[in-house]
Amino acid sequence: MHDSMGCLAAKLSNYVLLTERDLAHLALLEREEQTFQRHYEIVAAGEPLKNLYIVKEGWAYSYVDTRDGRRQIVKLHMPGDLIGFESLPSATVACSVRSASTVVLCPFLPEALQMVFSKAERLAAILFAMSCRDQESMVSRLRAIGRMDARERLIQMLLDTINQIRLTDADVKWPFTIPLSQTEIGDYVGLTNVHVSKTLIRLEREGLIARSDGYRLEILNEAAMERIVDYENYHRALDTSWFPEY
């Protein structure tokens, strides 16, 4: 990522050439910063929507609680991600958000999007496209949870994670850190922490991954993992043929 380019701009530049005007608009969204320590409840579901956030550093996740107290993590947020877009239609926070590691977020008011949609039509188009891409990714996750076994679910998650990281860090250094406990991983893929532990051990024995120091992991055979789950990379290039012209 270029030093002068914000995280969101670095992510979007994978899909479309950003003009100086686009970069200026995005820089305004990343003007402020807030730091939250690990496991901090940033927003709670049901609250009025006050801010949207861009992830600058660290990880967070969105989740919902069931009536019986169980938690379902619905999305992981990494540098360059937008948090809160799904809440815009109702102006009420749809999912609680918690930091998975120490995380630096750039908050901005939803009203700031008026500037983007009125003065930067092509930038608005890519933000809309990225929201649609999130829907594609969610469908893939529902398929994994509903139709895949534990081994396949974890493989799918690891492949998605590494491809998401590559959007803002093309040269991922191995091993990389996943700042999620086994319970949090289980809440994301629909497994118990015990099942997650046993499945990670199995993947190690199969020579697909290697782990060290708890949270550090290396993917050893990405191609084999992709074949196992018939992996579809939803972080690939976007069709921009319908975007407005500059």
TrEMBL record:
Gene3D superfamilies: Jelly Rolls (2.60.120.10), Winged helix-like DNA-binding domain superfamily/Winged helix DNA-binding domain (1.10.10.10). The keyword Ligase does not apply. Residues 32-104 form the Cyclic nucleotide-binding domain. GO terms for molecular function: DNA binding. CDD domains: CAP_ED, HTH_CRP. One of its GO terms (biological process) is regulation of DNA-templated transcription. Pfam families: cNMP_binding (PF00027), HTH_Crp_2 (PF13545). It comes from the Bacteria. This is Crp/Fnr family transcriptional regulator. It comes from Notoacmeibacter marinus.
